[in-house]
User: What shape does this take?
Amino acid sequence: MAVAVAEPTAERPRTRVPLPPRLRAAGWYRAALFEVLGLGFAFGITALIRWLQHIHPVISGDAVTTVALFTVPIFFLVGIGACDYWLYWAAGRVTRPEDHSGHGAYSWRDYFRVNTDHKVIGIQYTVTSFFFLFVGGLLAMLIRVQLAKPGMQFLTPQQYNGVFSVHATVLIFLFVIPVFAGLANFVLPLMIGAPDMAFPRLNALSYWLLPLGGIVMLMSFLAPGGSFASGWTAYAPLSTTMPLGQLFFSIGVQFAGFSSIFTALNFLVTIITMRAPGMSFFRMPLLVWANFSTSLLVVIATPFIAASQFFLLLDRALGFHFFDAFVGVNRNGNVLMYQHVFWFYSHPAVYIMMLPGFGIISEVLATKSRKPIFGYRMMAFSLLAIVVLGFTVWAHHMFVSGMQPWIRIPMMITTAIIAIPTGIKIFSWLATLWRGVLHLDTPMLFALGFLTMFTLGGISGVMLAMIPFDIHVSQTYFIVAHIHYVLFGGSLFTIFAGVYYWFPKMTGRMFDERLGKLHFWLTFIFFNLTFGPMHLIGIQGMPRRVAEYAEKFAGWNLFISFSAFILGLSTLVFLYNIVASWRGGPRAAANPWRALTLEWQVSSPPPVFNFDAVPTVVGGPYEYGVPGAVHGIFKSPTEARPVTAGTFGGLPSQETHPGPPGHEGGE
Amino acid sequence: MRNRPLVQMIVFGVIGCAILIPLSLIVPWFPTEASRQAGNIHTLYYVLLIASVPIFVLVETVVLYSVWKFRLRPGDGRVDGPPIHGNTRLEVVWTVLPALLIIGLVSYAYTVLRSNEAKKPNQMTVNVTARQFGFEFSYPQANGKTVVASALYLPKDQPVVFRLRSLDVIHSFFVPEFSEKLDAVPGITTTLRVTPTRDGTYPVECTELCGPGHAFMRSTVHVISASRFQSWLAAQPTNRPPPLGMPGPKTSQPGVPGSKGGGVTAGTSSGGS
Assistant: This one.
């Protein structure tokens, strides 16, 4: 559809309408023009169909909005130039072979253009995601203002439901999931010794899909009837009977979902095919393993949420009856089906939001403890175990949903079993600390804070697996506490650790260590004061997602709101530190942490094409404490051989190095 | 000399557990225990706490001890730690021990579940109808009539089976003091079993987001003695029409609780039992 319309406008100007070059060249002007075209297309197609079907009035705001929410963003992508290469190719016109003119960013303006450089895309991704972190955080502040006291104030119930729904959706789909993709976009190709991702243009497209999804979701506040207000879970049939704003969720999720699927495919192909010589699977840094596992989850699971939201869309827009139990010939819509399909994505999504963080923690802990990761192979295998088990537990979100009772038992068992690979990871990290030389700077503090907070989140997770206890606390503030311990104390702490850890590499500047530590302590203390008491009020019976609550919870809620405001303010310390350091921090050395992985062996920031010479990997990534150990050298495999003198076989991937945990080639 | 850190840590860990386990148990976690099921669940939670605190203490002990003993000291400069890559025996231990713990906890939770959801011979059926934004309770009577009430009255020590239906979107029926909840799902009838054991008045809450009025979808449950319940029941008019969408008195025969009827809501299947 986009192709059909884009073609004539791209062709005609030369002969008929003399369009100014600004509107013809890919960029923001053309994007604006195409958005207008997209809107016009939505008006046209809905009016045509309704006219043909004798539906009056011909112009319907609902119908136009439904179609426009798809066409306007897609036309925007064409206008900004994210699809130029493919469209030229499809039209049989001369394509521009990759001349790398799209690589590198030389001024801030370059970050607002379609760029195929994984490092630029990584920064675009990360900064965009952090923008949405602050949006989601502000919404959280609104929630806490509303809940500071019982008795309606500030927001109406419908507005309140909208605010917490957008809060959760934005932070899950626009922050936690993409920020990991952003960080990995920057460091993963560097870590495996690749010049870029496998599909740079697809990479650019997957980035540009992301802000579109976010803007669609935030625009829902402007919709008549307010933003979507059925939670981030959008349970049918509540969501199918919601005002127009609900559409913005169903469609925004599609863009965010496509973005993560494309990125995941890209990571998988990159990791499988583009590793440097000698980089066997068991010499990959654990961040690479983590993103490999995450990408498997994304590729398999994300289509399920896309499907669930398309079902909702069809129910709402076209009167299908997937989830409507009260209409239709046999009244046979199945309400519970939505939850099964939804959680079949959304439980693996929990691991999509956690496994890359595990990878970050492994990098930070090994480097900052100056010790090899303890039990490297088990760390890698436990990631894969979580991937497999992650698909077998979805219905533990539905213990009180009224589904067949027997399903609960196997789901309880598999859920509890997931604690075992997760426990292996925690214990291995602890053993990595043991007898190391701990550099307690900001990334390390966040990593240690993560260990503590995630252990608590994991423990409450095992408790929630126990069906009878889950029956008592599900849908209460205990759940709110649990997910924030896992996603804030877990994921966000790893994200902060990763951002501080790679900040010198990404920007070429050092951050302010004192402000970083201040940020950590404020976050750590007020995080616990905010979410810790929620366990208690949840068990005492305060339901989640309520704009109003019983008087007996007033004291704790005031305390929580107060802590939450300081927690919110603490992110300003982070923001100031990052902005000020990026603009004027001291120049960073190539390898300020004395890390062994490949991304630290190049300059900070890295050269446009990452490596001047293709690196050859000769050992494990975490050989700290092994005298003279290196992970990679910048020589070709044949030149490299004499360096690792001694006994070795023919291929570089089979070369051994003193003491690496996994020196056999893993392919 | 090599073993001293381990001894120190074990001492810290034991002290930590000795302080934290009692501390975690004296927190007034739960509301009043007002049902047989609640008692079982509270015990389960305390067992979970006793099993969890040592794990948390273990993690914290290692983290804090490492920060204390192994942190970079001025003058250490570029020293690295020892290149320890792993220890298979240790890894087996920390895979098998949690597995055993998990098996124990899951088995225990299963027995609690079985006990809580066991059928009782003398159970009483109460139909719960949820809609935006309120609950309605109806008591099928032996004479084929139905008593309808807007607040829930239950006799003490009488096993009750709730049949939950919804007229519009998904709702949930939760009494914190009973420690039991279940969704009311449009199209199906779901079943929840509770035996109230303590006189009192407790809140009934909807815990599934159901629209703008969700926070205000509240009712009350009064647990009273069996004799008072009988006199309350007798005082209720029985000729009131059944609530909208409920099966009429004809289909709701005694002895066939929650039987399918021709009402608007009567769905295709009966979940639960």
Q: What stands out?
A: The first strand of chain A starts at residue 616 and ends at 617. The two ends of chain A are 42 Å apart (CA to CA).
